[in-house]
Amino acid sequence: MSKVGRLVSLRIASRIGLVVAIFFGIILLVEFLDVGRFEQTAEIAGGWTATAVAFLSALRWSLLGLPVTVLLGALIGLIDLQRHRELVIVAASGHSIWSIIRWPLILVVLFGAMMATVVDSVAIRAYQQLDVAQIGWGRAYGLQNQEQWFSQSGPDGRYALHARSVRDGGAELRRVSIFRLTAPGETGTRIYAERATLDDGFWRLEDGTVLDVDSSPRPFETLELATGSTLAELSLQLGTAEDMSWFGLFQALDEGIEDPFARSAAQTRFHKLNAMPIVLAGALLIAFAFTAGYRRAGHYGWIVLNGIVLGLVVFMVIEMADRAGSAGVVDPVVASWGPAIAAVVIGLTVILRREDGRI
Q: What is residue 25's predicted lDDT score, i.e. its pLDDT?
């Protein structure tokens, strides 16, 4: 890395880190200001656990807003370079805008890849270890311990499964009722069980009764019922794909997800994580596009305001596309990669226009 690349990279990285830290602090303050929720969590799980869960929640919201914070941090870093005329000196020494952008762009892409895979996975794993489902935290665990319906299918046919209580992300169900879906004219079977646990390819039912219209009730201690669902698919049906890491999503999609809505949500979340480095690269290019040019006056208020507006627009577009992809309205690949590619194209177009003018 050249001295110019080191200077620009360190300045932009420090400002991005500062903005991310400020946003994290604001979100953490909001979490702590929810006194009722914090005290309830502390009463159930202890003060240290409540504090840890608040930090993890703030971290995950900070990851969600990375495109905005990276854009604002890059704008502040570039404005700082402009105020001291360092970019003017670099340009006068014969360095093109592309040689200035190269190293910050590489570092931002690596930073996005690390956040999408490592940091997000660690935060989700910590959430699961703290058992946030039992203490009222976590966006994807809001349906835990409530009545749920599951549509199931397998070698034993199709059936609807109703559980009075759901535990461990769908791995264990309590007070289960199963209704077989049969063709018109066929006799159906209804099964009641006190407990059902998901094993590899089947439900293990315990302490139940089989009811049929043409035979007497048949109690059982253990009964196996085949299913094509996996634990990852049940977790998706219970909550949202936001509480699954990159590795968990990769495994779930590789094994196959039968439910179309859960599959769309998982694919959108997976491709969104894959596209995060490109989204951050697009945010950096947009920051360069609006601040890298020479300005005789040292007023940057409108640039900061435009950066905030652009950051909000990028965030809203990404979230709207995410909702559309998760609902199956838009193809998950298009919903995830479309905003990322659009941000890169906009940034490159404005930079080319500023550097080379009209062709």
A: 92
Handedness of CA 76, 79, 84, 85 (dihedral sign): positive
Longest dimension (CA), the chain: 92
- pLDDT category at 114 given cuts 50, 70, 90 is very high
The CA–CA distances, whole Å, from 186 to 181, 197, 211, 249, 299 equal 10, 28, 15, 39, 79
Q: How is 228-297 classified by DSSP, letter by letter? A: ---HHHHHHHHS-GGGS-HHHHHHHHHH---SHHHHHHHHHHHHHHHHHHHHHHHHHHHHHHHHSS--SS
Tokens standing for residue 230: 């996996």
175, 280 contact by CB (below 8 A)? no
- Report residue 112's pLDDT band, with 50, 70 and 90 as the boundaries: very high
Q: What is the pLDDT of residues 10-61, one digit of tens each?
A: 888 999 999 999 999 999 898 888 777 777 777 766 778 778 888 888 888 8
Alpha helices of the chain — where are they, by DSSP H?
Answer: 3-33, 35-45, 47-64, 66-83, 86-92, 97-114, 120-129, 132-135, 231-238, 246-255, 260-291, 301-326, 332-356
pLDDT at 238 over 80: no
Beta bridge partners of 219: 209
Q: How far is CA 324 from CA 84, 189, 317, 333, 335, in A?
A: 44, 38, 11, 11, 7
- Token pair in block for residue 357: 């003018």
Residues 300/57, Cβ–Cβ less than 8 Å:
no
Identify the band that residue 146 occupies on the pLDDT scale cut at 50, 70 and 90. Answer: low
Contacts of 48 (CB under 8 A, 6+ apart): none
Q: What is the model's pTM?
A: 0.75
Neighbour-count burial of 50, counting CB atoms closer than 10 A to its CB (0-12 exposed, 13-18 middle, 19+ buried):
buried
**Contact assessment for residue 139 and residue 76, using Cβ atoms and an 8 Å cutoff:** no
Listed by start position, the domains of the chain span 3-138+255-356, 146-229
Q: Residue 301 carries which DSSP code?
A: H
174-204 pLDDT per residue, tens: 888 888 776 665 556 788 988 888 888 888 8
> Helices 97-114 and 332-356 sit at what angle, rounded to 10 degrees?
160
